[in-house]
UniProtKB/TrEMBL annotation:
Binding site for ADP: 12, 16, 265, 308, 409
Subunit structure as annotated in this protein's UniProt entry: Homotetramer and homodimer (in equilibrium).
Keyword Transferase carried by entry: yes
Enzyme class, broadest EC rank: transferase
GO CC, alphabetical: cytosol
Residue sites binding sn-glycerol 3-phosphate per the record: 12, 82-83, 243
Purpose of the protein: Key enzyme in the regulation of glycerol uptake and metabolism. Catalyzes the phosphorylation of glycerol to yield sn-glycerol 3-phosphate.
Phylogenetic classification of the source organism: Bacteria, Bacillati, Bacillota, Clostridia, Eubacteriales
Record text on activity regulation: Activated by phosphorylation and inhibited by fructose 1,6-bisphosphate (FBP).
Name this protein carries in UniProt: Glycerol kinase
NCBIfam families linked: glycerol_kin, PRK00047.1
Family: Belongs to the FGGY kinase family.
Length: 497
């Protein structure tokens, strides 16, 4: 019987399930969005049960559309939106409340108190910049502000997990409460050197160790699916990896100095630093990329909170486009932005600025400004933010960036990648498979079940679709970046009085 690998990419706005064959061809793919909740300014929530139900539906749909049976699936790999925090009842499998999403900003005061208390030491131990994205501060907030969660934890009923833990628990029928070092690396809960939970941060935030999932490697058979879900068949769940580390794995960035950017809801810039842990600073943090075959790889990461979400805002907020792809068509109708710069700081600014008080700014508007200029400025903002993060990463690692591998939804835009190459001054490469996040999840599972033999084998599957070469002068590049930095300064600190 021919076997396949099923990768699950549970993202911030939707869930995708893809079935790959041994030559990394996509056999089938299923995708669905799910509901976003914004109960207060700066708050973002998801319904964890809806996420599970849609994930299961997409898995079944992908298997059905490939004309396969569950027994054809050799293993399941899960990659997911990181830091999003879920509490659920371990007896009933029902969430205690909505999940607090990684983008949520409600824990800013907790972060500021931690920074004031012992910020540099905490960041050095955990490898993470103390920002509201972190799961640890979300856990603390829920324990302090939701009496039902506090009681459930004290009673021993409720447990916590990021989405990888939640989905594994639900798909296995409650047989496994696990995570991996790549997911745990960005929660602020894990010690970056020992890859165990950091006792200091648990004490600082009054988080019981008993509610946390077991940290296992990125690629191993953790459990199997509940036989009731797939007609009596148990499919191994064999890979867990954070979405951005999954994209780095899917992009075959296995050598020190290799780098990728994923253009999704946000942009996530990662550079492989090999077995060297470089403590975080300057808004850049230092996650574990993966733990595979007894070897741990580290990286440097820059997080841009709003990237593709800016294009969604053009669609849903301004209503100047009906589909996200129309933004590029608008942008191409003008030669430049006519001096307009768009800083999409809807929830603050990520790396390397990390200004939670910043807010979105469109500057340089004149009477001649049109929707075409605003659309172009929105697309260009994605590239500017990536460049800013990479410049800091190059300096920290002491490794000059020679090329960038791009993936995610935004990587389908030729306009976007050409401007990225222009503003970085290096080639930007788009692979044949741009859904590299899901591919990384598939690789992690496939290696665990013996579907693929080694990292060396899977590195050969990476194939280039197109390379974009820089096409502007250094003088023009510097001028544009200078004006971008002026716009950043004006967006900064807006909420402060």
């Amino acid at each position: 019987m021919k076997k396949y690998i099923l990768g699950i990419d549970q993202g911030t706005t939707g869930t995708r399930a893809i079935i790959f064959d041994q030559d990394v061809n996509i056999i089938s793919s299923a995708y669905s969005e799910f509901t976003q909740y914004f109960p207060q300014p700066g708050w973002v929530e998801h319904d964890a049960m809806e996420i599970y139900e849609i994930t299961l539906k997409m898995m079944r749909q992908a298997i059905s559309e490939a004309h396969l049976k569950p027994e054809n699936i050799a293993g399941i790999g899960i990659t997911n939106q990181r830091e999003t925090t879920v509490f659920w009842d371990k007896n009933t499998g029902i969430p205690a409340d909505r999940a607090i999403v990684w983008q949520d900003r409600r824990t800013l005061p907790i972060c500021e108190a931690l920074i004031e208390k012992d910020g540099p030491a905490i960041e050095d131990r955990t490898g993470v910049t103390i920002i509201p994205n972190d799961s640890a501060t979300k856990i603390h907030w829920q324990l302090k502000n939701n009496p039902e969660i506090r009681r459930g934890v004290d009673d021993g009923r409720l447990i916590y997990g990021t989405i990888d833990s939640w989905l594994t628990w639900k798909l296995s029928g409650g047989r496994a409460h696990v995570t991996d070092p790549s997911n745990s690396a960005v929660t602020l809960l894990q010690n970056a050197r020992t890859l165990e939970y950091d006792k200091g941060i648990l004490s600082d935030l009054d988080i019981p160790r008993s509610i946390l999932p077991e940290i296992r490697s990125t690629s191993e058979i953790y459990t199997a699916t509940d036989p009731a879900l797939f007609g009596g068949v148990e499919i191994p769940i064999a890979g867990l990896i954070g979405d951005q580390q999954g994209a780095t794995l899917g992009q075959a960035c296995f050598e020190k100095g290799m780098a990728k950017n994923t253009y999704g809801t946000g942009s996530f810039i990662l550079m492989n630093t090999g077995d060297e842990y470089i403590p975080p600073s300057d808004g850049i943090f230092s996650p574990v990329l993966w733990s595979i075959g007894g070897k741990v790889d580290y990286g440097l990461e820059g997080l841009v909170d709003v990237s593709g979400a800016a294009i969604q805002w053009l669609r849903d907020g301004l209503n100047i486009i009906e589909e996200s792809g129309e933004a590029e068509a608008l942008a191409r109708q003008v030669a430049d932005t006519a001096g307009v710069y768009f800083v999409p700081a809807f929830v603050g600014l990520g790396a390397p600025y990390f200004d939670s008080y910043a807010r979105g700014t469109i500057i340089g508007i004149s009477r001649g400004t049109t929707k075409h200029h605003i659309a172009r400025a929105a697309l260009e903002s994605m590239a500017f933010q990536v460049r800013d993060a990479f410049k800091v990463m190059e300096r920290k690692a002491g490794i000059p960036l020679k090329k960038l591998r791009a993936d995610g939804g935004g990587a389908k835009s030729d306009f976007m990648l050409q401007f990225q190459a222009d503003i970085l001054g290096i080639p930007v490469e788009r692979p044949v498979i741009t859904e590299t996040t899901c591919l990384g999840a598939a690789y992690s599972a496939g290696l665990a079940v013996g579907y693929w033999d080694s990292i060396e084998e899977i590195s050969k599957f990476w194939k280039i679709d197109r390379s974009f070469e820089p096409a502007i002068s250094e003088e023009e590049r510097e001028e544009r970046c200078f004006n971008w930095n002026r716009a950043i300064e004006r967006a900064g600190g807006w909420l402060k009085r």
